[in-house]
Specification:
Blueprint lengths: L2 H8 L11 E5 L2 E4 L4 E4 L2 H4 L8 H13 L12 H12 L3 E5 L2 H19 L8 E5 L8 H4 L5 H4 L9 E4 L4 H7 L4 E6 L15 H12 L2 E5 L23 E4 L11 E5 L1 H4 L15 H16 L2 H17 L6 E6 L4 E5 L6 H11 L1 E2 L2 E2 L3 E4 L7 H17 L3
Parallel strand pairs: 3-13, 5-6, 5-7, 7-8, 8-9
Antiparallel strand pairs: 1-2, 2-3, 4-10, 9-10, 11-12, 12-15, 14-15
The protein binds pyridoxal-5'-phosphate.
């Protein structure tokens, strides 16, 4: 069976997959239909931080699915409380609201911020504005793409309602200048992932936090991709001495098997919600809560945050030593690295195809950047196996 043709015949082409047909996965390894093995250096955009088919995730999932799964939030369950309690403990925040996908949790944060502005800061209803960064990626709903600076995300999908102001990422003073009496929040990724693994200079978030405090504006961080150990800390905001008012989590929270996301925030922010103001049929269901709780426990018990810091430094070191005329820049934090390719010499997409033939799967981002973000469970030996191939492909490209 030609799975590529059959999928292409009936699937809307909103993605351009690499020509690999996957059939199985285990840990950091993926298997195609012919039994070929690939190292996963992408982890489904960080959704698979605990690796594929983690036995504890599968066990929790099976047990919970048999016991209690979806009931809607019309009732309490014996797992949602414990899950949200753990989230609140880990983040140092007060309350959480569970959703499913990252984009839904971002939407939740936008609603929270606007209502907060309206009710607590006296901004007229319908006038609240949010400052975001150029090059942002926060998901694909119409509201969210309405403040994307990426033309291909927006083209033909308007009208957009507005209410967002964009500033350059990494420039704290620009935020200070953009704040008006109607600004309710600043929404940022600590590291821009889809924007090309852009790491702002040290001190940026301390400055942004100080500006937000001074002007009475909320700071909301989208850690859907950077959170839960990816950058070598539980949360990327911990690299600087700050805490956001609202924190958006997703991807890895679902243990690589199920969509689980949440907005976690201060009591002041989260108390803008009252019954009827927001919801999701599947959000916070017992199965999701159990999987979320188990994912957090695995990250903790297997010391994946420490592993990300340690192996991440090693990964970045090895990549930085690459001698190749196609590599313009190497950057990253924890097990999350971006290698910027000179587009005049090679395309990141074609390098991904060559890497796939060598047994390493990753995906370009922003057209010119190769991302490397393996499951945090990867061993040093497995990472070496991948790096050898990456080094071979990138240095071969020199000639
Ligand atoms: C992936 C991502 C999202 C959107 O998550 P979905 O689950 O795809 O809706 C939002 N923000 C960031 C930073 C992301 O990387």
């Amino acid at each position: 069976m030609d799975f590529i043709s059959s999928e292409r015949a009936v699937s809307a082409s909103n993605y351009a997959p690499l020509p690999v047909v996957l059939a199985e996965a285990n840990g950091v390894w993926l298997m195609d239909t012919s039994g070929r093995r690939y190292l996963d250096m992408m982890s489904a955009y960080s959704a698979v931080s605990v690796g594929h088919g983690h036995p504890r995730i599968l066990k929790a999932m099976r047990e919970q699915a048999e016991r209690l799964a979806v009931t809607s939030r019309a009732y309490y369950s014996d797992v949602l409380g414990p899950f949200l309690t753990r989230l609140v403990e880990l983040t140092g925040l007060d309350m959480a609201l569970p959703m499913n996908t990252g984009a839904e949790a971002v939407e939740t944060a936008i609603k929270a911020a606007r209502r907060f502005g309206c009710r607590r800061r006296g901004i007229p209803d319908g006038q609240a504005r949010i400052i975001a960064a150029e090059g942002n990626f926060h998901g694909r709903t119409t509201t969210i793409i309405g403040f994307s600076s990426e033309a291909s995300y927006r083209d033909g999908f308007g009208p957009f309602d507005g209410g967002f102001d964009l500033v350059p990422f990494g420039d704290a003073a620009a935020i200070g200048k953009a704040i008006t009496p109607n600004t309710c929040a600043v929404l940022l990724e600590p590291i821009q992932g889809e924007g090309g693994i852009i790491v702002p200079s040290p001190g940026y978030f301390e400055e942004v936090r100080a500006i937000c405090n001074e002007r009475g504006v909320l700071l909301i961080l989208d850690e859907v991709q950077s959170g839960l150990g990816r950058t070598g800390r539980w949360f990327a905001f911990e690299h600087e001495n700050i805490r956001p008012d609202g924190l958006i989590l997703g991807k890895a929270l679902g243990g690589g098997v199920y969509p689980v996301s949440a907005l976690v925030g201060t009591r002041e922010l989260m108390s803008v919600f009252d019954p009827g103001s927001h919801g999701s049929t599947f959000g916070g269901n017992a199965l999701a809560a159990r999987i979320g709780l188990e994912s957090l426990a695995i990250i903790e018990d297997e010391h994946l945050v420490e592993r990300s810091a340690e192996l991440g430094a090693y990964l970045l070191g090895r990549l930085s030593e690459l001698r190749s005329n196609i590599v313009v820049d190497v950057r990253g934090r924890g097990l999350w690295a971006g290698v910027e390719i000179d587009p005049d010499v090679a395309s990141a997409r074609s390098l991904c195809e060559v890497l796939a033939r060598e047994g390493v799967l990753t995906k370009d981002t922003h057209e010119t950047v190769l991302r490397f973000a393996p499951p945090l469970t990867i061993t040093r030996e497995e990472l070496d196996w991948g790096l050898e191939r990456v080094e071979r492909v990138l240095s071969r490209a020199v000639n």
